[in-house]
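hey so i finally got around to running the thing on that chain from the lab meeting. sorry it took forever, my laptop kept dying and i had to restart like 3 times. anyway pasting the input first so we r on the same page abt which one it is
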Amino acid sequence: MGSSVPILWHNTALFYQDDLINSVIYQQLIQFSESKMNFFISDAWAQAAAGGAGGGLLGLLPMVAIFVIFYFLLIRPQQKKAKEHRAMVAELTKGDEVVTNGGVLGKITDGDENFVTVEIASGVQVQVQRLAISQMMPKGTVKDAG
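ok and heres what got predicted. didnt touch it at all, straight out
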């Protein structure tokens, strides 16, 4: 017992390693855990054999279903909205009343392929990117301040 290293067993008693390995309780514990592990392993083998070859394809089915749901609920509507926004931005002309992404309401007075000039008050004009126009408003929404 002189060279043995003391170990703590279940936080209750201090045993020496040599005494623990040679003890009957330790041997019974090892046999019990091995028998239970063999019991679970044999179930796993039996279950795998009964599964067959179609298990891989059936396991992939939920992932495909989730992708299809995401496509129809998230991706497709977002693409449709982006396509409508690109069409609206391409159709902007002088005199259209618009709202920018920042919430500024105004009337388009000039524009090129990348930028438009928006009059937000009488004599006050700002230049914004075409893609910064969030929506077109009906005619007559902007009232002249002058």
